[in-house]
Amino acid sequence: MERAECLQMIYPELEDKLVVTIMGACAQELYNLGHRENFFYLQHAMGLASSIGLGLATHLPNERVVVLDGDGSVLMNLGTLATLARYRPKNLIHVIFDNGSLLSTGGFDSQTASGVTDLDAIARGAGVQHVAHAVTTLDFGEAFLAAIERQELSVIVAKVAALGPDHYGMDLQLGENAFRFRRWIRERTRAAGATA
Fold first, then answer.
1. Looking at domain 3-195, which of 3.40.50.970, 3.30.565.10, 2.60.120.460, 3.40.30.10 is its CATH number?
2. N or C terminus of the chain: which is more exposed, having fewer CB within 10 Å?
3. What values do phi and psi take at 108, rounded to 5?
4. pLDDT tens across 4-55, in order?
5. What b/e sequence results for 59-80 when a residue is b if at least 16 CB atoms lie within 10 Å of its CB, and e otherwise?
6. Is this prediction's pTM over 0.90?
7. Cα–Cα distance for residue pair 47/62, rounded to 1 Å
8. So what's the pLDDT on residue 104?
9. DSSP states of 29-44 as a string?
């Protein structure tokens, strides 16, 4: 299964959700599908997408937050799974694309490549109640839709091939992306307050 296929499958579901991606291939592949103002591509901060997602989910409980992460990033910040389990934001879906590789930082094998390190088991052991494992795009799509319907903290570990996009380059700098993302949130919050 390829990460790009998974992203293409869920892309329509991301239109009204706050989306935080980790750097590199995942961010580029989502961007290639078509940028939306509710997408924040976390560049130059490997390991922190889940932390930012948790902050958004706890601060904005009426919004759905989707974190698109990677195995290398999660391995750099394993404590995030315990923190997620501690606070259990009902509006957060944490997707971990496990390609067994540090693809965006040189292509070296990650600790999951050998099968010794099991991110599903780590998430469960940390206390996350809803953990899904996906090895096909059908598995992934079903797990993602179930997570949306569940409205509870959900972690999805998707085993994907160590493949990236054929090019890197976004016409969007981090500062501009952060400003536009924050403005989208502010305008959405104001609109929700006006209709309440």
1. 3.40.50.970
2. C
3. -70, 155
4. 999 999 999 999 999 999 988 899 999 999 999 999 998 878 889 999 999 9
5. ebeebbbbbbbbbbbbbbbeeb
6. yes
7. 25
8. 61
9. HHHHH---TTEEE-TT
